[in-house]
Design a protein that fits this description.
By secondary structure, the protein is an alpha/beta fold. The chain has helices at 21-29, 61-64, 82-86, 119-133, 146-151, 156-166, 183-191, 212-215, 243-249, 270-280, 291-303, and strands at residues 5-8, 34-41, 47-49, 138-143, 177-180, 198-203, 221-224, 230-234, 237-240, 253-254, 285-288. β8 (230-234) and β9 (237-240) form a beta hairpin. It is globular. The chain starts with a strand and ends with a helix.
Length: 304
């Protein structure tokens, strides 16, 4: 059981606004294995840690820079400099049309004072904590929407790889897992850019689960939506697809997303979700908004 990795999804995002340094520090204190960074470039080519290419779900950009939206009425990270982005207030994720918070029982919207930050700032926080605590917690960056960046004349991937290398993340031994949904781009990272990092191919659609053999030619693991692992429920017992078994046969690790204690869907409890996927389906790790709960669960399983 102890070989199952716990990945803080956008930090301890069940407790503090996602991708804030505060959420990352809290996740670190929970002693996770990895902390995730979603990356989008600013206008002046600084990788910003934020989940979307848009700003309107998690900041006050519409109030602060009302004239900077594009024709689709969205505010794009790429249209703002690093200094402008740092001036925004960050909050719990909300629907920009209605103002409603996505997860009503999480940190209250617009309370306290949170800011955006760069990949470099987050790495320095995590490496600094590794130095001061003696722990060795890893990073798990994601290249977000590389084709969008390319259309905008930006090279997100090379920028990120150069920064990772500058901070000592170059090989599979360096406690960094690099992920991307774009299979072409992840393959390019391995083949053309010759990265030796541990690579995880994120998968979202059922047809992608049929491409595991190809993914195994360049990736070290896959990150499926957890529902792709479940097939049906029979007599209160979940049945599974062949995804985990096939991935393991190909030597791929499986890190499904996202384990949320406040969004259980087909599960009656968070413990049932964890037991079903981590134990019964035998996945290798979990992206979770509630890292402490997953760590506690795994500790209990180890003590059985």
């Amino acid at each position: 059981m102890s070989n199952k990795v716990v990945i803080a999804h956008r930090g301890a995002s069940g407790y503090l606004p996602e991708h804030t340094l505060e959420a990352k520090a809290m996740a670190y204190a929970m002693q996770v294995d990895f902390i995730e960074q979603d990356l989008v470039l600013s206008k002046d080519d600084v990788p910003i840690v934020i989940h979307d290419i848009y700003l309107d779900y998690v900041t006050n950009v519409a109030n602060k820079f009302p004239d900077r939206k594009r024709e689709d009425n969205r505010f794009y990270v790429i249209d703002f400099t690093y200094d402008e982005l740092k001036s925004l207030q960050v909050t719990e994720r909300f629907d920009p049309k209605t103002g409603e918070q996505f997860y009503p029982n999480r940190f209250p919207k617009w309370k306290a004072n949170f800011k955006l930050h760069s990949l470099q700032e987050e790495i320095e926080l995590i490496q600094g904590l590794n130095a001061s605590t003696g722990n060795n917690i890893g990073i798990y960056p994601e290249i977000k929407e590389p084709k969008f960046h390319q259309k905008e004349g930006k090279n997100l991937t090379t920028t990120v790889l150069n920064i990772l290398a500058d901070y000592g993340y170059k090989t599979k031994n360096d406690n960094c897992i690099l992920q991307c949904f774009d299979a072409e781009e992840l393959e390019r990272i391995r083949v053309d850019l010759k990265s030796e990092l541990f690579l995880v191919q994120l998968i979202e659609h059922p047809e992608e689960a049929k491409q595991l053999a190809h993914f195994a030619t360049y990736a070290d693991g896959v990150g499926p939506w957890y529902k792709q692992i479940l097939s049906e429920k029979v007599n209160n017992s979940f049945q599974f697809t062949n995804l985990v078994k096939e991935a393991h046969e190909l030597g791929l690790k499986v890190h499904p997303y996202t384990f949320r204690a406040d969004a259980l869907a087909e599960f009656s409890s968070f413990d049932e979700m964890l037991k079903t996927l981590l134990i019964d389906a035998n996945v290798d790790g979990a992206f979770t908004d509630f890292p402490d709960k997953v760590i506690d669960f795994l500790k209990k399983e180890n003590e059985r």
